[in-house]
Structure formats: structure tokens, C-alpha cells
């Protein structure tokens, strides 16, 4: 278990940032995973007094404060309106309500955990992170970086007309995922674009972008082929929860189902608009 | 470090280590209903409310509740006893070790969800493990408790 | 009143079974009714009733330094720096502990489990084995001291594969003072903890003449009981210089002996108290943690406490024995099962707790399910390895054996092209049959046929068997299994009970059986209230204290309802007699002329009466004999409860995911003493069985490190994982049981693994013989079948 020399709840972001520059300082989110490590932390910095616990919607973006809980994300109406039940699906299997009342979006994203559902989901959307010192950068860029001493202030999802699906396979219903897959599609720069994010491989989520024009009436074989192709571009590993071979197979199956589900919805909307 | 918070409606002051967790602090303050079952956030035995929200006290730094309200089973005795009677009627407490945390989360659910259906109840309570009962009896007890509550409310509606 | 009527009244009052027949269940007021547990009020109110709630605040905190190696010799151990940490009271190593071996198994003396342990040993035998004991005034100080102990290990090659353990050149217990007290076929120089062969008829000849022989190997993994309250105890020295131990244990009287053995002190120096327990399921039938604070208190005179972390409870505890079972089942072409041959290899791990005994149940509680077989053979070996020691877990070997035998029977049904329930209807044991593989006992009470018939109705077997394609990529299958267990250990388990009449006539019921949440304090009170014709509120009962409670072997082997229950009935009978005598004395008439109706003793001669209240009060004044009774019971037989269950599962044909849909279980536990509590026992046991079937596994690294060391990694089912569990009872009447009752506690975990395996088999054609049946295994087997 973690040992902590002192606990500080800064009044300003500046103060928090300054405190965090010391080598043995750590910013705490929900304290869910950090506590389980054996780190000796001299100063733990609690950002909960800085108003970072709000989800704000503007005309163009949804800004999720780093200290928002997973439960807030789960219950966020504006995300649901835009992207359907997928966001809720990506969060609701995580341990239990109590856990999700505590775990933070910032902690999940900053930790860049391999098992992270939240990271897998957010990565597939048009998502940015706002850093205190490093400005606003793409989440896909951020996940590749090593954790540093900057402060993560918010996660920003740019609103766009995209369709989103999320699915995972777990051994027990609230376990870490054996595999987690998100699929997003929309028109980007005038082209139909598909985003595939696969996490818990067991490595952390990675993103794949494809300018695929998948016909609405694509056959099961065609969809399977697309899914197989997407799944094959990720690497997989073996741990207690599953083998690399099984994980790749699951990724193929889930991506296939998600693509199919999106195509079905699309053709449904098209029929309605016809 | 010294912290002040409201524990079950009373202001308390405690001198805590920076890495002390709320679980140990509230037990130290006499709230022995709060149990530790796993240390890794998986079991729900240590559930208390912080500002009314169900939380795992094994994973909350005590320092963090400074200025907040903490409620344990001892703070909702009457309500807990009422639900407890339904649990006991089913035998659903069995060893009883997980009961306090479970009851806290059921009561939190009752405040948050309106007439939850079976699936919603199961999902809300998924973070409360029980090794004795196989869960079915707890669900029966909750459903009967909710029915009784509703009847009670209906009775209160003036004719 | 005619003699016949009188007999009927007596029968009702005492629950005993006179020759004229059974007790009339319809007349029971308390027994066979669902009453809340006597302690439920304080449990649901979160009262401070468990070990750690009661421990004095000045207890020294005790922790154990654990080995990072699976097998090593300690060549040097430096504790100086650790001792210098402020607040540290003591640090003990193997050099400080008696060199006299003992066992932690909670069993009747002479224990079948070998004496193979020391409190601390120079040789460490698994990752997590105890190396040093540290006690100090605060948790921080003790943790700090643990880090400062420097140990030099000579790392040895471990034995990690239990299939290679027997006669391996690496010995887990080479020491000369290793001892086996009972003739269990043990030989520490062969890594052999037990060996036996038993049988009846010529199995080879019978199998050779069978039309069909199923010949398969099954494997069951180690499982953790995972009770919510981890292992814990606190100890203190009392006024008389004795060691007092408050422990979360199922076996207080055995703990007394174990600690006396371990510390090498007289048993009279030890007192064990059991408060409320947060679950046990067999885990606490082994004295996993008590020796550490006991040793500290004995050496320092100071109170001490140990609370195992969940991690310790998962890496250094007493899980289910891993077993590999080779089954041969032979049948003729009509489906008559003619012979069963079982060889079990059991992995006891680093120490032999419950090793020689659990294995026996893998055959003796599985083979007798099939009553018609002409021959059987059951052979076993139990081996030492360098993983955590196994112990007692609900089912106690029967669970493993029933998975193997029931799965083999399901495979036989497939070979025969028969419905597996029909095959069972043809072959199952019936009431009145002699069971050769069950020590030749007769099945005096058996409603297994009714259980199976009812389970089929409940699930809708005829419509659902074998499977239904749901049309959405999912297929639902149903699968069946039967089970049995015992009711106490025949000729060994002993339950004693004392009841006294107090002022105002209330009763104190004193039992040595340990309520671990299961409700035995309640059901024993129910029985006493029934027998004494009083309300349950007229009786007080409390937890066990070895100084004050009458002797009981403890709550294990499904013994309490049956064994201690009979002791309650016996004791009540003699107490009623004594109350009559005392009442007659006060009334000035002959005991033959009175009767006791629970409230008063009435003179039949003149209609005068004296109330129980008054008797109670008069007993407290100028009395030369206390008004109390005591009795004990030990049974020459262990009547098996029976059970049939059908699982319905839904399988995702692409991912192999198995989802529990429905589970219909019907139990014959004889008369159901408390239907609500029996039902919860059953539902809970099934849920644990589902965990064993699908998720739970103790996984080791190549070097023997236990990866399943938290609830994050050792996954027990949540309420979202168990589907719907439905339980009913089809009661037989056990003539030797209290009110016709048999046991319920263990049998309930035995059906899920074979029933779920069968449901998967019926849904997909895939047969899994290795637990847990993960989605990946289902998928891989489906893929293999597709490629063939």
C-alpha cells in the first residue's frame, strides 16, 4: 500500500502545478489504483477543490473535468444524446456504483491503464486532453506519452455527427475486460471514416483510423472481413484473463458486431428519411 | 493532520495520518459497522456515504473528507433496522458481515432511483459481494421492502 | 389418554422417533418453520460482534513475514534492525519456536492429518510460508519492521506439478520428526500424504464385460472459500495466567488442542472463545492464523491480535484440494451402470491439513449415487507440493468427485444416445438400498427420485432438453447432475449440549457447535423450543467458550443439524423428565402422576399445578441439585442428504461466453428445520458452485507465486453472474435424525460444476473436463470441433 508524507489540497491550479514538480509528488484522482501500489509519495495533491468536477457542454464540445467521476460520465445526458448508450456501456461494468462514485475520469485517462474501458471509449471519439502546461492535445497523442509532471485538467470531446458503439467481454460481469472494443464512424473531411479502439489486449487502448466506405447492405462476410482486418492491425498479449489468440478472435467478433449495429442503425435512419 | 467532518450528523475532529483511510478513522470513532473485506475496492463491505453518495471507505483518504458529511449505518439506524427486518425474515443476512455495507448501498439506491426494476437493482448493487447467500434472498428482501414502502406511501395519501 | 395417544404426544414433544413412527410434522410449532435468526437483529444493525470489533485497543499488532520462494532453507536471518524500530515488541524466527510438529487441521484426535508443521520452520515450503513473526504497538511500526528483516535463503528446487510429486527426488517434508498419527498410508519420503484402495466386486471383470465404458480424466482446481471476514484472532493472558484466544473459528475445541500442541503447553492453559463469525465454509476448520498471536501473547504476556489481509487470506490459507480424477464407468447397452472405477490424485500443497480425509469423499460420496452397480473400486494418492496448503472447503472432496463421476455419467448418456435424466432414473440410488461404496450403509431416507422429477418440472426439461437455438447467435442448453454428502462423521463427531433452568424458568441452551452465520444457534434453539413446548424467546443461547460450553467437535462435515441436533433432542428429553420430577416434588406427588406442558407441571391426580417460572425460582433457593440436563450424541452412521439440479445456460456461439440463465435445485435434507435458512444455504452453495464452475481459479506463476491474491484477480460471482437460482425441497424422513432431519450445509455446492458442464455439452457438443469452464475454453473447444 501507498505511503504518503503529506496531503495538500491546493487552492489554485498554479499551486497544484508547482507542488507537483517535486519528484516525489503525485496528483491523486479517485485514489482507486494509486493506493494499491507500494509507492512512497512525499506529497499527494488533491485537485478536488479546483472546480474540475463538472461536465460542461458548449456548442462545439463537451468538456469533462478531470475530477468528474465515472458515475457522472455514466449518467451524462449530453454524451448519451450525441453518442447513444455506448458511453454508459463503457462505464457501467466497472466494479460497482460506489467505485464509480469515486474513480475519476482524469485518473483513468492519466493512468493510461491497459484495462481501461474509459480510455478505450474516449479514444475512439474526437477527444482531446487539456493540460495545465502542455496545452490541448489529442488524446491519441497523449496516451502515447509517458506520464509526466503536467496536470490533466479536462477531457474534451468535440461534438460531431458520429456513431458510437462499445462492447467488452469480461469473465465476471464487473471484472476487468478480457477485451474492450469501441467503434466510431462519421464523415471526416468529407470522407466516411471508421475509428477502431481496442483496449485490454491486455495492453492499453490504441486507435486505428480507416477511410472505409462500408456499404449499408454489406453482407455478413464483408463485415467479418472488415472487422478481421481492423482487429489484425492491433497486437495482443496473454495474461490470466485470456490468450493473445483468443483476444484477437474476440476483437474480431466485437468489432464485427459493432460495425453491423452501426450499419443497421444507419440504414434505419436512411429508411426513415426516405 | 487535523480534520473536521460531520459524522452521522455530529461534528467530529480527528487527528489523522495523511495516508489514513476513512475506513480506519470511522471505526476508530466507534462506527464498528463498517467492515473491511478486501482492501482492493472489490467487495463493498466498507460502503459509507460521503455527502450522501455511496463510497468505499477503504479507498478514501480520511484527509479528503475534511469539511464533508460522512454517514455510516450507525447514522441511519432506524431505516437500516426497517430494511434489516426484511433481510432477517428471508435469512438474507446469513453471516452478517457484508450486511452493513450492503444496507448502506440499498438505502443509497432507494434515494437515487425511483422504483428500480430487478435489473437496475442488480446493477446498482453489483459492487456489494456476498459469499453466503447467493444473492437471491437479498433481492427478495429488497423487493418486499420496496413494496411495503410503497404501500406505506399509498396509505399516507389522503383519500 | 390411550397409550398410543401418549406416544404421539411424546413424539411431538421430543422430536424423537419412537417405534410407532415418525414425529408428526404438521403438529410442529417451531421446527420446520422459517424463523429469523436469533442474532439477526444485531447483525443487520452492524453491531460490534465480530472478532476485530471486540479486540481490546491495546493489543499488539501481529504480522507475519512471508517467503518469496516456493522452496528454500533459511540460512541466515537478521532481526536486529527490525527489533530496533520504535514500538516493536518482539520479532520471532524459527529459532524461537518449539521443534515439535503439529497440524493445523481442526479434526478429532488422533487427527488423520499428519503432524508436519512448526510455528516457524527453517524450511519454507511455498511462496507465502511464514518466516518470522513481528509484533508491535502499531501497524506502521510492524510494517516497517517487516521490511527490515534480512533473510538469507538457500533457494531449492520446488515441486510445483502435483502430477510429478509422488516419488520426486525433491522432498517437501524430508524431516525426521514428521509424524502421521493415523494409518492413512502416508510416507513423507515419497511426498505421499495419504494412499488407500477400497472396492467391492471384481471391477476389472465387470468393466471388461460392459457394452460401454467411459474412460476419462477430469481436473478440478483449487478454490478459495472467500468468506467475507478474513482469518483473525486476538489473544490475551488472563488472571490465572492462561492463554485466552478469541478467534473466528469453526472449531474452538480443536483450536485449543492445536495451540497446546504448537506452543507445547498443557491444554488446560488454553481457552478459546468464538464470537460471531463472518463466514467460514470450511476455511476456518483449519487454525490458519491463531498460532501467531498466541505465540506472541505466550512469550510476552501481552494481548495480541492478527487480522489477515485479503491477500494473506488468498495466498496462505486453506483452499479446496486440487484434484485429478480418472473415472471409468461401465454400462450395458440398455444403460444399466454396472461398474465405477475411480482414481483420485489430490494436491495437499505444502502441508497435509485435511489431505488424507478430503480425498476419501471424492469416491465415497460420488460412487454411491448409482445404486445398482455390481462392482466399484476407489483408489487415491494425496501428494505434497510446494504450493499453499489446501484445507477444508464446503463439499470436502465430494464436490471434486461428483464433478468427475457425474460428468462421466453425462458422457455415458451421450454415448448411449440417452437422455441423461433417464439414465439417472434408471440407475440412481433408492430408499432402502445398501450402498456398498458408502461403507455398506443403507439409504434409510432418500427422495432423490422425487428431487430429480421435480427439478425436471421446474426447468421444463422435456421442452428444453438438450438445447434451443435462440436465433441471435446464442444457444441455450440444459444440464443435469445429482449429489450427496454426509451428515457428520460417523463414529467420530460428537455434539454435547447442556440446558439449565434459570429463575423465572427461562432456559440457557449451551452448545459447543459453532454458528458461523449458518444459523445453528437458531435451529438448535428451534429444536429445544419444540421439545420443551416453549417459545424461542424462553431460551437463551450464546457463542462458544471452551471453558463453559459443552464439548462439540465443531461445525464441519455437515454435522451440526444432525449430530448436535440429536444431542439437543436427547438433552431436552432428560430435562423434561427432571422438570417433572422437580415439579412433582414441589407439588408433593409422584413423578408418574404429573405431566409437563411446557408452562407448568400438572398433577393428574388432583389437578394442582406449579408453573415453570415458580419451579425455576424455587430451584434457586435451598436446592441440593441444579435443575439442568446435559447430553451428547455421536452417530454410528452418516445419513446422506441428496440433491438433483438442472442448470440452464446461454452460450454465445462466437465468443464462448457462458451466461447462467436458470438453476433449478431440489434438495432432500430430510425434514427442513428452518426452510428460510435452508433455502439460503442452498442458494449460497449453488452460487459458490457457479463461481467454481466458471470463474474461480488459483493461478500460480512458473516459480510458484500465487497470482490470485486479491478479489481483483480471484473473481467470485457478483449478483450479476449467478442468473436465477430456484430452490425447492423434497423431504424424506431420516429416522435417526432430529425431527427426521439430515444435513444441508455442504451438499449444496456439489451440483453446479457437473450440471453446468452438461448444459454446455448439450448446448454446443463441447465437453469440458477441466475447471473452471471459461469462455476461452468453450470457444477453443468449439473451434476444434468445427475444424474436425
TrEMBL record, chain A:
It comes from the Bacteria. PROSITE patterns: FAD_PCMH. SUPFAM superfamilies: CO dehydrogenase flavoprotein C-terminal domain-like, FAD-binding/transporter-associated domain-like. Residues 1-162 form the FAD-binding PCMH-type domain. It holds the Pfam family FAD_binding_5. InterPro entries: CO_DH_flav_C, CO_DH_flav_C_dom_sf, Diverse_Substr_Oxidored, FAD-bd_PCMH, FAD-bd_PCMH-like_sf, FAD-bd_PCMH_sub2, Mopterin_DH_FAD-bd. Gene3D superfamilies: 3.30.465.10, CO dehydrogenase flavoprotein, C-terminal domain. PANTHER family: XANTHINE DEHYDROGENASE SUBUNIT C-RELATED. This is FAD binding domain-containing protein.
UniProtKB/TrEMBL annotation, chain B:
Transmembrane segments: none annotated. Residues 1-76 form the 2Fe-2S ferredoxin-type domain. It comes from the Bacteria. Coiled coil: none annotated. InterPro entries: 2Fe-2S-bd, 2Fe-2S-bd_dom_sf, 2Fe-2S_ferredoxin-like_sf, 2Fe-2S_ferredoxin-type, Beta-grasp_dom_sf, Diverse_Oxidoreductases. PROSITE patterns: 2FE2S_FER_2. CDD domains: fer2. This is 2Fe-2S iron-sulfur cluster binding domain-containing protein. Pfam families: Fer2 (PF00111), Fer2_2 (PF01799). Keywords: 2Fe-2S, Iron, Iron-sulfur, Metal-binding.
Automatic annotation (TrEMBL), chain C:
InterPro entries: Ald_Oxase/Xan_DH_a/b, Ald_Oxase/Xan_DH_a/b_sf, Ald_Oxase/xanthine_DH-like, AldOxase/xan_DH_MoCoBD1, AldOxase/xan_DH_MoCoBD2, AldOxase/xan_DH_Mopterin-bd_sf. Residues 1-20 are annotated as: Disordered. The lineage of its organism: Bacteria, Bacillati, Bacillota, Clostridia, Eubacteriales. It comes from Ruminococcus turbiniformis. Residues 45-157 form the Aldehyde oxidase/xanthine dehydrogenase a/b hammerhead domain. It holds the Pfam family Ald_Xan_dh_C. This is Molybdopterin-dependent oxidoreductase. Keywords: Molybdenum, Oxidoreductase. Coiled coil: none annotated. Residues 7-20 have a biased composition (Polar residues).
Amino acid at each position: 500500500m501507498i505511503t504518503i508524507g503529506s496531503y495538500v489540497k491546493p487552492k489554485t491550479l498554479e499551486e497544484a502545478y508547482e507542488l507537483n514538480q517535486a519528484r516525489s509528488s503525485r496528483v491523486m484522482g479517485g485514489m482507486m489504483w494509486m493506493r494499491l501500489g507500494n509507492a512512497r509519495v512525499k506529497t499527494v495533491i488533491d485537485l478536488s477543490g479546483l472546480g474540475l468536477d463538472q461536465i460542461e457542454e458548449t456548442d462545439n464540445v463537451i468538456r469533462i473535468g478531470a475530477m468528474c467521476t465515472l458515475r457522472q460520465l455514466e449518467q451524462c445526458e449530453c454524451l448519451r444524446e450525441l453518442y447513444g448508450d455506448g458511453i454508459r456501456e463503457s462505464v457501467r461494468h466497472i466494479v460497482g456504483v460506489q467505485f464509480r462514485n469515486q474513480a475519476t475520469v482524469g485518473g483513468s485517462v492519466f493512468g493510461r491503464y491497459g484495462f481501461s474501458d474509459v480510455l478505450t471509449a474516449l479514444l475512439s471519439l474526437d477527444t482531446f486532453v487539456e493540460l495545465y502546461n502542455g496545452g490541448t492535445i489529442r488524446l491519441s497523442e497523449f496516451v502515447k506519452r509517458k506520464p509526466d509532471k503536467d496536470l490533466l485538467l479536462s477531457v474534451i470531446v468535440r461534438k460531431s455527427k458520429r456513431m458510437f458503439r462499445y462492447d467488452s467481454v469480461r469473465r465476471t460481469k464487473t471484472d476487468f475486460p478480457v477485451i474492450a472494443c469501441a467503434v466510431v464512424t462519421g464523415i471526416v473531411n468529407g470522407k466516411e471514416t471508421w475509428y477502431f479502439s481496442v483496449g485490454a489486449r491486455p495492453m492499453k487502448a490504441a486507435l486505428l483510423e480507416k477511410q472505409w466506405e462500408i456499404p449499408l447492405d454489406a453482407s455478413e462476410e464483408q463485415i467479418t472481413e472488415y472487422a478481421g482486418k481492423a482487429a489484425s492491425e492491433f497486437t495482443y498479449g496473454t495474461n490470466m484473463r485470456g490468450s493473445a489468440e483468443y483476444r484477437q478472435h474476440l476483437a474480431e467478433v466485437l468489432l464485427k458486431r459493432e460495425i453491423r449495429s452501426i450499419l443497421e442503425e444507419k440504414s434505419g435512419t436512411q429508411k426513415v428519411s426516405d | 493532520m487535523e480534520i473536521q467532518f460531520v459524522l452521522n450528523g455530529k461534528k467530529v475532529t480527528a487527528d489523522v495520518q495523511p495516508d489514513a483511510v476513512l475506513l480506519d478513522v470511522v471505526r476508530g470513532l466507534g462506527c464498528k459497522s463498517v467492515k473491511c473485506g478486501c482492501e482492493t475496492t472489490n467487495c463493498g463491505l466498507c460502503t459509507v456515504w460521503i455527502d450522501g453518495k455511496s463510497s468505499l471507505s477503504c479507498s478514501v483518504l480520511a484527509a479528503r473528507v475534511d469539511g464533508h458529511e460522512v454517514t455510516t449505518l450507525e447514522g441511519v439506524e432506524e431505516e437500516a433496522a426497517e430494511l434489516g427486518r426484511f433481510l432477517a425474515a428471508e435469512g438474507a443476512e446469513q453471516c452478517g458481515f457484508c450486511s452493513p455495507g450492503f444496507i448502506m448501498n440499498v438505502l443509497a439506491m432507494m434515494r437515487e432511483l425511483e422504483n428500480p426494476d430487478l435489473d437496475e437493482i442488480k446493477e446498482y448493487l453489483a459492487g456489494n459481494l456476498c459469499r453466503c447467500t447467493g444473492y437471491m434472498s437479498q433481492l427478495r428482501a429488497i423487493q418486499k421492502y420496496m413494496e411495503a414502502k410503497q404501500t406505506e406511501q399509498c396509505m399516507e395519501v389522503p383519500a | 389418554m390411550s397409550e398410543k395417544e401418549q406416544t404421539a404426544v411424546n413424539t411431538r414433544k421430543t422430536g424423537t422417533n419412537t417405534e410407532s413412527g415418525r414425529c408428526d410434522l404438521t403438529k410442529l410449532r417451531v421446527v420446520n418453520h422459517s424463523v429469523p435468526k436469533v442474532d439477526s437483529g444485531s447483525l443487520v444493525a452492524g453491531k460490534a460482534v465480530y472478532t476485530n470489533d471486540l479486540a481490546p485497543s491495546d493489543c499488539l499488532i501481529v504480522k507475519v513475514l512471508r517467503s518469496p520462494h516456493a522452496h528454500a532453507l533459511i540460512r541466515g536471518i537478521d532481526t536486529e534492525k527490525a527489533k530496533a524500530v520504535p514500538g516493536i515488541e518482539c520479532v520471532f524466527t524459527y529459532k524461537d519456536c518449539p521443534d515439535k510438529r503439529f497440524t493445523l487441521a481442526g479434526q478429532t484426535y488422533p487427527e488423520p492429518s499428519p503432524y508436519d508443521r512448526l510455528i516457524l520452520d527453517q524450511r519454507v515450503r511455498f511462496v507465502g510460508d511464514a518466516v518470522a513473526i513481528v509484533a508491535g504497538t502499531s501497524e506502521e511500526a510492524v510494517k516497517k519492521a517487516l521490511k527490515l528483516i534480512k533473510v538469507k535463503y538457500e533457494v531449492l528446487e520446488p515441486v510445483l506439478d502435483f502430477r510429478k510429486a509422488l516419488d520426486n527426488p525433491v522432498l517437501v517434508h524430508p524431516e525426521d520428526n514428521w509424524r502421521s498419527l493415523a494409518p492413512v498410508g502416508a510416507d513423507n519420503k515419497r511426498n505421499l500424504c495419504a494412499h488407500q484402495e477400497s472396492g467391492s466386486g471384481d471391477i476389472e471383470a465387470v468393466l471388461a464385460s460392459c457394452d460401454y465404458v467411459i474412460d476419462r480424466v477430469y481436473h478440478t482446481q483449487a478454490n478459495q472459500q472467500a468468506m467475507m471476514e478474513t482469518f483473525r484472532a486476538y489473544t490475551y493472558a488472563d488472571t490465572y495466567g492462561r492463554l485466552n484466544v478469541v478467534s473466528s473459528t469453526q472449531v474452538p475445541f480443536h483450536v485449543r488442542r492445536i495451540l497446546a500442541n504448537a506452543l507445547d503447553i498443557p491444554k488446560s492453559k488454553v481457552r478459546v472463545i468464538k464470537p460471531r463469525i463472518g463466514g467460514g465454509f470450511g476455511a476456518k476448520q483449519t487454525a490458519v492464523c491463531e498460532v501467531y498471536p498466541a505465540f506472541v501473547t505466550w512469550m510476552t504476556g501481552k494481548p495480541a491480535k492478527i487480522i489477515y489481509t485479503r491477500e494473506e487470506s488468498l495466498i496462505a490459507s486453506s483452499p479446496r484440494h486440487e484434484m485429478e480424477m480418472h473415472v471409468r464407468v461401465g454400462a450395458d447397452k440398455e444403460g444399466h451402470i454396472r461398474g465405477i472405477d475411480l482414481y483420485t490424485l489430490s494436491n495437499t500443497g505444502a502441508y497435509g491439513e485435511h489431505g488424507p480425509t478430503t480425498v476419501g469423499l471424492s469416491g465415497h460420496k460420488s460412487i454411491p449415487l448409482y445404486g445398482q452397480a455390481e462392482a466399484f473400486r476407489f483408489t487415491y494418492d494425496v501428494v505434497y507440493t510446494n504450493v499453499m496448503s489446501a484445507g477444508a472447503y464446503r463439499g470436502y472432496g465430494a464436490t471434486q468427485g461428483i464433478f468427475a463421476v457425474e460428468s462421466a455419467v453425462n458422457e455415458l448418456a451421450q454415448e448411449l444416445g440417452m437422455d441423461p435424466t433417464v439414465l439417472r432414473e434408471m440407475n440412481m440410488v433408492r430408499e432402502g438400498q445398501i450402498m456398498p461404496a458408502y461403507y455398506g450403509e443403507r439409504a434409510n431416507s432418500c427422495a432423490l427420485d422425487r428431487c430429480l422429477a421435480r427439478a425436471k418440472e421446474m426447468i421444463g426439461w422435456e421442452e428444453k432438453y438438450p438445447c434451443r437455438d435462440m436465433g441471435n447467435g446464442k444457444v441455450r442448453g440444459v444440464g443435469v447432475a445429482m449429489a450427496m454428502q454426509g451428515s457428520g462423521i460417523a463414529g467420530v463427531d460428537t455434539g454435547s449440549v447442556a440446558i439449565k433452568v434459570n429463575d423465572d424458568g427461562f432456559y440457557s441452551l449451551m452448545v459447543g457447535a459453532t454458528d458461523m452465520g449458518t444459523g445453528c444457534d437458531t435451529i438448535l434453539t428451534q429444536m429445544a423450543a419444540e421439545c420443551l413446548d416453549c417459545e424461542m424467546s424462553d431460551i437463551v443461547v450464546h457463542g462458544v467458550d471452551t471453558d463453559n460450553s459443552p464439548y462439540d467437535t465443531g461445525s464441519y462435515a455437515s454435522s451440526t443439524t444432525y449430530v448436535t441436533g440429536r444431542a439437543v433432542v436427547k438433552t431436552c428429553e432428560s430435562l423434561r423428565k427432571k422438570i417433572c420430577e422437580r415439579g412433582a416434588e414441589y407439588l408433593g406427588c409422584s413423578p408418574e402422576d404429573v405431566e409437563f406442558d411446557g408452562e407448568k407441571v400438572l398433577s393428574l391426580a388432583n389437578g394442582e399445578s406449579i408453573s415453570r417460572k415458580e419451579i425455576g425460582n424455587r430451584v434457586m433457593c435451598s436446592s441440593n441439585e441444579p435443575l439442568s440436563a446435559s447430553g451428547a450424541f455421536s452417530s454410528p452412521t452418516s445419513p446422506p442428504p441428496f440433491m438433483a439440479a438442472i442448470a440452464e445456460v446461454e452460450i454465445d456461439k462466437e465468443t464462448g461466453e457462458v451466461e447462467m440463465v436458470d438453476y433449478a435445485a431440489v434438495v432432500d435434507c430430510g425434514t427442513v428445520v428452518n426452510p428460510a435458512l435452508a433455502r439460503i444455504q442452498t442458494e449460497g452453495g449453488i452460487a459458490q458452485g457457479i463461481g467454481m464452475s466458471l470463474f474461480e481459479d488459483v493461478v500460480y506463476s512458473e516459480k510458484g507465486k500465487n497470482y490470485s491474491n486479491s478479489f481483483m484477480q480471484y473473481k467470485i460471482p457478483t449478483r450479476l453472474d449467478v442468473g436465477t437460482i430456484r430452490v425447492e425441497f423434497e423431504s424424506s424422513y431420516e429416522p435417526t435424525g432430529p425431527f427426521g432431519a439430515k444435513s444441508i450445509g455442504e451438499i449444496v455446492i456439489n451440483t453446479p460444476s457437473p450440471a453446468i458442464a452438461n448444459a454446455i455439452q448439450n448446448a454446443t457438443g463441447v465437453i469440458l473436463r477441466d475447471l473452471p469452464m471459461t469462455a476461452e475454453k468453450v470457444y477453443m473447444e468449439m473451434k476444434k470441433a468445427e475444424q474436425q
